[in-house]
Amino acid sequence: MAETKTYREALREAMVHELDRDENVVLMGEDIGVYGGTHLITDGLYDEYGPKRVMDVPISENGFTGAAVGMAMMGMRPVVEMMTWNFSFLAADQIIQNAAKVRYFSGGQVEVPLVIRGPNGGGVQLSAQHTHSLESFYGHFPGLKVVAPVTPNDVKGMMLTAIRDPNPVIFLEAGALYGTKGEVEDGDNAVPFGKARIAREGSDVTLIAYGRQVNLCLRAADTLAEDGFEAEVIDLRSLRPFDEETIVESVEKTHRAVAVQEQWRWFGVASEVAAIIQDRAFDSLDAPIERVSGAEVPGPYARNLELMAFPSEKQVTNAARRVLYEEEK
């Protein structure tokens, strides 16, 4: 059975499921308790579970993230909310130097079952200091798992998997999509990490994205279909571990690829996608790989400038037309 729910409701449902299933699961974050969370993800949970399971913490990302790392090492399963992922820079030392490395340092004797979650990227007019896309930053470090679900069903299923994982998980939510709706499976619908989702099947060109850019690619695919081109859209959803096989199989079928990311072009996920295709599917390519990325500027506040700074449907369709050797429109 499935029911239509918002991205926000699906995320909350997953955390409630795990709070009920495992007494070691606790939620931590700024204003997530009495206030219900800046994004209302945890609304009502403080009254239901109390202050020992839903913890309001001081405004000190380095402090409460360090505490969560220690709690995880001792057998608890903290789920830490970053009000926005940009604030995690303040806790980067705890995340990268401790959470990511303790299991390795201890020879596997000490696990760190920690989830750090919150809105990632732009699209909601929060200006330059609140619109970073940090997937390549955290994806660079062994020891961290990094996921970026886009559908309500995946955000629920991947949060269930994240909380149960013995490793620290960087859970990047599409903050601009909290209010969007989709079908969500009832009960325990855990979605495994390391497996991409084919969001739309096609035969002429492969569009590869993650997070909210998947929806952009789906709209671009609709536009291309009007001209007779069927685009296959791949939702990576898991960035570390990464599903190379689905990408390679798709490119071997379509012979053309466009990688789309919201973050800046340099040193991004799209570059890794292009490198994998080059390494493993070069002989199948009939055109150079295209990359579509955000503009190389700090995120603007003004809405018209913000729209210009992030990938657009037109940029994606034009990139697809270039690999199809069609005229841009």
Question: Key features?
Answer:
alpha/beta; 7-stranded mixed sheet; 14 strands; 2 domains; 21% strand; Rossmann fold; 329 residues; 5-stranded mixed sheet; 12 helices; globular
What would you note in describing this structure?
This protein is α/β, with parallel strands linked by helices and 329 residues long. It folds into 2 domains: 184 residues, Rossmann fold (3-Layer(aba) Sandwich); 127 residues, Rossmann fold, CATH 3.40.50.920. Helix content is 36%, strand content 21%. The strands form 3 sheets. A 7-stranded mixed β-sheet has the order 3-2-4-5-7-6-12, with helices on both faces. A 5-stranded mixed β-sheet has the order 9-11-10-13-14, with helices on both faces. The chain has a two-stranded antiparallel ribbon with strand order 1-8. The chain is globular and about 60 Å long. The relative contact order is 0.12. The model has no long low-confidence stretch (mean pLDDT 95).
